[in-house]
Amino acid sequence: MTTRSVAAETHVAQRRDVEANPIQVGLLGIGTVGSGTFQVLQRNQAEIRRRAGRGIQITMVADLDTARAKAIVGDAAQVVNDARAVIANPAIDIVVELIGGYGIAKALVLEAIAAGKHVVTANKALLAVHGTEIFEAARARGVIVAFEAAVAGGIPIIKALREGLTANRIDWVAGIINGTTNFILSEMRAKGLDFGAVLKQAQDLGYAEADPTFDIEGIDAAHKATIMSAIAFGIPVQFDKAYVEGITALQAADIRYAEQLGYRIKLLGIMRRRPSGIELRVHPTLIPSQRLIANVEGAMNAVVVQGDAVGTTLYYGKGAGSEPTASAVIADLVDITRLHTADPDHRVPHLAFQPGELAATPILPIDEVVTAFYLRLVVADKAGVLARITGILADNDISIDAVLQRESAEGEKQTDLIILTHDTVEGRMKAALAQMQALPTVLAPIVRIRKEELS
Fold this sequence. Notes:
Layout: H1 3-20, E1 23-28, H2 32-43, H3 45-52, E2 56-62, H4 66-73, E3 78-80, H5 83-88, E4 94-97, H6 104-114, E5 118-121, H7 124-141, E6 145-146, H8 157-164, E7 170-176, H9 179-191, H10 195-205, H11 213-216, H12 219-233, E8 243-244, H13 252-260, E9 263-274, E10 277-288, E11 300-307, E12 311-318, H14 322-339, E13 370-380, H15 385-395, E14 400-407, E15 414-421, E16 424-425, H16 426-437, E17 447-451
Parallel strand pairs: 1-2, 1-4, 2-3, 4-5, 5-6, 8-10, 10-17
Antiparallel strand pairs: 7-9, 7-11, 9-10, 11-12, 13-15, 13-16, 13-17, 14-15
């Protein structure tokens, strides 16, 4: 027998040994997503093994509520109340972090990496703020940090951006990436209700938390947009440079007027490549009602990606929930299982681009962003008012796309003046708004909402 054939047989034997032994997973936190991950993995074990080439088993769970954890996993896994006991177990190959937040989760993820464990996380806040440090630690240790579940729940948008669209120069990404706010805006449009009433309804139905700040102020969406921008454009994660604006100030009147003009209002995460830098922003946005993303209703998510080769692609599905998010967690477990013994230098980079190739492209300040605008002014119903306002816009080199005038709900001697503009620089619009607001015939704070054609 030749040396080559002996080596080949040895390799085959080693591979059979690996395949015979399931990869062992430690779960940190078994709340909504953790329980869904355990249940889906149990239910679809045979199918997952066929795809991964090896069994995947959760053999250890850490949760402060050990009684509840034991009720979920039964005798299938060891339950402890100390996450560090999972990390210290030499039999654990992959640690799944589902605790959330910036604090203890960061420490545990870094400790797991230092211990040579691969990590799967759904923690978008952690990665948006500390991702650069975490990915560098993983690269240095030769382990994988997988995070498909951190953005858009069950929608495989991370894999699409990082692998499926790797041939493309990504021009822009725009997404409805927070189900709570999309549910609220859908209800406001359908029922003509104001924000406060619909928020209460969303909380009663379980779509919104008792403290919904991260959702309604746009912070959750900005975490996700930060991660997607890094993968799409090959830049470090830079949450601190994102522009974030929530939906709390939106009024039913503006949703109604937008509809009359052929638009719908959605909270969008927008990431766009410009010659001078990258736009990274989250805010309410008018979108033409014929766009597919404008018709995403309820708590669903959707992401549109524009690439130079592929054109426009749309990804749609459930952005949260026990089993949809578990689907993404388990997809990461399968990927790591397939690559467990692979040379770290030949794995897909965490942020799609090779670590040494991340660009120092600046994130543009909001004053330098170029977009169109919807304006609503409550003005005195008298001659010359419209001419004065359009004159201010012209003086600031802002061109008008459409004007709509409607009787104001505030009184007979005033009117709602709705203006759509063409694209302009945000800083220029701020200057014009200040001048218009100072007019004695402008009787209330001006409503300003950005508009995107997404064409």
